[in-house]
Amino acid sequence: MLIYGINPVAEALRAGRVTRLRVADRSDARLRTLLSDAGRRHVDVSHVDAATLDRLSRNGVHQGVVADVEAPGIETLDGLVASASGAALLVVLDGVEDPHNVGAIIRTVDAAGAHGVVRQTRRAAALDGAAAKASAGAVSHVPIVDVVNIARALTELKALGVWTIGLSEDATQSYDRVDWTQPSAVVLGAEGSGLRRLVRETCDIVVSIPMAGHVESLNVSVAAGVVLFEAARQRRESSGQASGAEK
């Protein structure tokens, strides 16, 4: 698949997934650093004109570089949970299809120290192009599981000991009243339509982010950040308390 932009390509290089680079001649210290890294990794580099990069990136903001990368390896739900360091913290996307939102969520998953993303194959944004750019390269590092059915995936996560927590603006319980230190998956619905009925009913619990302003809800990627960093806060505090108790 193709990705573009200096940060996404640099992260893909770091992850060892780039098979070919196409670059336009431009004076940019970051691009020179990227090319130097590509040389050390023996990645094939072709010099092309900017119009070629415009075409390959579909007029995206390519910053002078487009890369061919290997697609992410196939992950499984049980493998994702088993490979988590500590209690698993996952994000499940129920119909989130906008590539910018998907990329921003993946970036937040990486930043918050969560362990992966679960999404439906049929209703999923491609992970190249705009999604990779919006993720600032995190798409090269965050494990992603594609499933056929989200409700069924939630049932499988429950069987693996993961607490499934849906997010909806009309829920009465606040997100920060949940114990996020246990194995958890936050389930996010598409903007506008939210969680689908069966998915919502399959969740162990549904919570909301209290809103103090005039708008009814947050952008889904922002909501993901609010919840994930609350989970990260709770886990840091729990870990600190545990360390103190051991002393």
SSE layout and pairing:
Blueprint: E1 2-4, H1 6-14, E2 18-23, H2 29-40, E3 44-47, H3 50-56, E4 65-69, H4 77-83, E5 89-94, H5 99-112, E6 116-120, H6 129-134, E7 144-147, H7 150-159, E8 163-167, E9 173-174, E10 184-189, H8 197-202, E11 205-208, H9 220-246
Parallel strand pairs: 2-3, 5-6, 5-10, 6-7, 8-10, 8-11, 9-11
Antiparallel strand pairs: 1-4, 2-4
Question: Would you write up a description of this structure?
Answer:
The chain has helices at 6-14, 29-40, 50-56, 77-83, 99-112, 129-134, 150-159, 197-202, 220-246, and strands at residues 2-4, 18-23, 44-47, 65-69, 89-94, 116-120, 144-147, 163-167, 173-174, 184-189, 205-208. It is an alpha/beta fold and 247 residues long. It has two domains: 2-69, 2-Layer Sandwich (60s Ribosomal Protein L30, Chain: A); 77-243, SPOUT methyltransferase, trefoil knot domain (Alpha/beta knot, 3-Layer(aba) Sandwich), CATH 3.40.1280.10. A seven-stranded parallel sheet has the order 7-6-5-10-8-11-9, sandwiched between helices. A four-stranded mixed sheet has the order 1-4-2-3, sandwiched between helices. The protein is elongated and about 55 Å long.
